[in-house]
Design brief:
The structure is a single chain. The chain has one domain: Rossmann fold (3-Layer(aba) Sandwich). It is about 35% helix and about 25% strand. It is built from seven helices and ten strands. β4 and β5 form a beta hairpin. α5 packs parallel to α6. The longest helix has 18 residues. It is globular and about 50 Å long. Bound molecules: adenosine-5'-diphosphate and magnesium ion.
């Protein structure tokens, strides 16, 4: 469902990474590792159309997203992608239920039954009326995970999603995310330094300046 060909990203003339080629099948879970600063976050942003690419193509569900204009890219993301970032990015003035329901609201397809189900699935049942400031870090990331899942995207992109959590919380939150992508058959590309995640993924790849290499 994802075909990346010869993706290169430069700032001025300096390449951050070059020649990234990647295929992800429907439902496949790929973990990406690599040194700090090698361009992992930049690469995920390029896959999502949140950053411009210097060379190469990103084909998702038979659409070359690098060829879409900004508005078409935004609509494509809204429908087909879910994101989980290291820093949660939960909206502070919305309660948990409204944060999680946001993708469905934007698509014009609110669904309270699905909202309740996804809150329960990630371990947030009963917390829908809380504001983000009333949550722990682990709970905040569960909100972000539920928000990434609720519209049943074909692909979830996750950038060190447990990097801001203590190791025990990270394990539990990661399990919630992996259980959900496996249950729903959602493909996932996840940047992570966690051995646990790497052991759960179908494949592990390492980003270097000259491309993606197989680790396992
Ligand atoms: N706007 C920018 N202009 C120039 N260089 C940038 C810009 N944004 C990021 N970079 C550089 O791109 C490299 C990759 O960053 P990043 O994708 O955050 O790496 P990682 O996620 O692997 O730690 C870093 O060396 C960073 O300094
Ligand atoms: Mg990063």
């Amino acid at each position: 469902m994802l075909q990346v060909r010869n993706l290169t990203k430069r700032y001025d003339s300096e390449a951050v990474f070059a020649d990234v080629t990647l295929d992800v099948a429907a439902g496949e879970f790929v973990a990406i590792v690599g040194e700090s600063g090698v361009g992992k976050s930049t690469m995920l942003n390029c896959l999502a159309g949140l950053d411009t690419v210097s060379e190469g193509t990103v084909k998702m569900l038979d659409t070359d997203v690098t060829k879409l204009d900004d508005q078409a890219q935004a609509l494509f993301r809204r429908r087909h992608l879910g994101f989980v970032f290291q820093a949660f990015h939960v909206l502070p003035h919305l309660d948990v239920a409204s944060n999680v329901a946001l993708p469905l609201m934007l698509l014009g397809t609110p669904d309270d039954v699905r909202l309740e189900a996804v809150l329960k699935a990630v371990g947030l049942d009963g917390l829908g009326a809380r504001l983000p400031q009333q949550l722990s870090g682990g709970q905040l990331q569960r909100v972000a995970i539920a928000r990434a899942l609720i519209h049943r995207p074909a692909l979830i992109l996750a950038d060190e999603p447990t990097g801001n959590l203590d190791p025990q919380t990270a394990e539990k939150v990661m399990k919630a995310l992996v259980d959900q992508i496996r249950d729903n058959g959602t493909a996932c590309v996840m940047v992570t330094h966690s051995q646990t995640v790497a052991s759960l993924a179908d494949r592990v790849l390492c980003l270097t300046r000259t491309g993606l290499r197989d680790v396992r």
